[in-house]
Amino acid sequence: MRVSFQQNFRKKLLDWYQKYKRDLPWRRSRDPYAIWVSEIMLQQTQVATVIPYYERFLKKFPTIAALARAEEEEVLALWAGLGYYRRAKLLQRGARAVAERHGGRLPDDPEALRELPGIGPYTAGAIASIAFQRPSPLVDGNVVRVLARVFARKGHAKDARLQKEIWALAADLVDPKHPGDFNQALMELGATLCRVALPSCERCPVQGLCAARRDGDPEAFPESPPPQKTLRLQRAAAVALRGGSVLLVKPRAARWFQGLWGLPHEYCAEAPATEAALGECLRSHLGLALLRPQALPATTHAITQHRITTWAWSGEARGRLKAAGPYEEARFFTKKELAGAALPNFDRKVLAAAKLI
Q1: CA pair distance 38, 50, nearest whole angstrom
Q2: Helix axes of 160-173 and 141-150: crossing angle, nearest 10 degrees
Q3: How far apart are CA 137 and CA 169, in angstroms?
Q4: Last residue of a domain, which of 83, 108, 136?
Q5: What's the confidence (pLDDT) of residue 133?
Q6: Fewest CB atoms within 10 Å of the CB: 9, 68, 313, 340?
Q7: Sorting pLDDT into bands at 50, 70 and 90, what band is 227?
Q8: pLDDT beyond 70 at 273
Q9: Can you give the CATH number for the domain in which 78 is found?
């Protein structure tokens, strides 16, 4: 890559960023921990969704030490609704590792950062460059799109060959004097102007350097990945009541929400899921039956390529509660406790349909 191209690209991009960057709460901080939290939350989640979670999380856990000593259930409860709960668990495991190995201070070296739980190449590059001003590259979906267009590189965004090329280009381009701002500018450009569809090329600060713009078809880069097949799942769920409290269970193993509380449920092969399947689950694993169960409106929820329809029934619980089979814990939550419980969104939708939250 020519030095003149590097310098021109850096200057145009940084000048644009200083003028047009969005005012986001994590950009007002140089605290490595706060930047780490923001980067984990922003993975596969939109900025507008993250902001209130980020602010609440740092208010509750303002330091690495505070997060390290917290109960996992506290962390998951604060994360509830943000999705991809494994991120929260790994973030806490990372905080504990920092407390044990590094005296509670995040290391500034990208390789040392990558040794921490939950920190991969992207997050290590983000923390090193933004918090510590280390000239470390980063690559996310926005960066892949911007650089694939600027250099007219073929392949779809998740293709290993293209990823390798983009990482090499990002490493060549990162500004040694302002690496944090440069990396954020690359991502900002992809998020705001160099969009997947209908990019605003006429407003792009590097349009004169962009090969895809010059060729007249920027949307051809990167190529669209092969479509994922949508998997449709059906489940039956119980809103089991006792004296105004609601039964929640914690599974021994869960496909998506390990460690979270949830409604008792059973996945079914056919639609609609049946009350009979749910009744057998309650009897066998919880020692309960629903008295005069009332059907609730069906709810739907998407997790990656899965589309989950929940058919739920509400009723007074009868029987002596136990936790067996797939459940390691089961207890009734008051409405006040329910509000602070770590619950997945598809169960929150059911409880909202039952007018309990």
Answers
A1: 8
A2: 80
A3: 9
A4: 136
A5: 97
A6: 340
A7: confident
A8: no
A9: 1.10.340.30
CATH of the domain at 193: 1.10.1670.10
CA distance 40 to 47: 12
Tell me the whole-structure pTM to 2 decimals: 0.87
The arithmetic mean of pLDDT across residues 246-272, rounded, is 87
pLDDT tens readout for residues 153-168:
999 988 999 999 999 9
Structure confidence at residue 1 (pLDDT): 77
182 and 241 in a single domain? The answer is no
Q: Residue 257 and residue 83: Cα distance in Å, rounded?
A: 9
For residue 273, the domain's CATH number is: 3.90.79.10
313 φ, ψ (degrees, to nearest 5):
-130, 140
- Assess if residue 17 is contained within a domain: no
Dihedral in degrees, nearest 10, Cα atoms 75, 79, 83, 84: -30
SS3 160: helix
| DSSP structural state of residue 222 | S
Mean residue pLDDT of the chain comes to 94
CB atoms within 10 A of CB 139: 22
Q: Is 345 a residue whose pLDDT tops 80?
A: yes
What single-letter DSSP state applies at residue 283? I
Predicted local distance difference test score (pLDDT) of residue 274: 79
* Whether residue 90 is found in the same domain as residue 151: no
The two tokens of residue 75 are 């962390």
Number of domains, the chain: 3
The two structure tokens encoding residue 78:
């604060």
Q: Range of 144's domain?
A: 138-226
- Asked if 64 and 33 count as a contact pair (C-beta separation under 8 A), the reply is yes
CA-based Rg of the chain, rounded to a whole angstrom? 24
Can you give the pLDDT at residue 340? Answer: 84
Report the alpha-carbon distance of residue 6 to residue 234 in Å, rounded: 53
The catalytic residues are 39
User: Which of the two residues, 357 and 137, has the higher pLDDT score?
Assistant: 137
Residue 19 lies in a domain: no
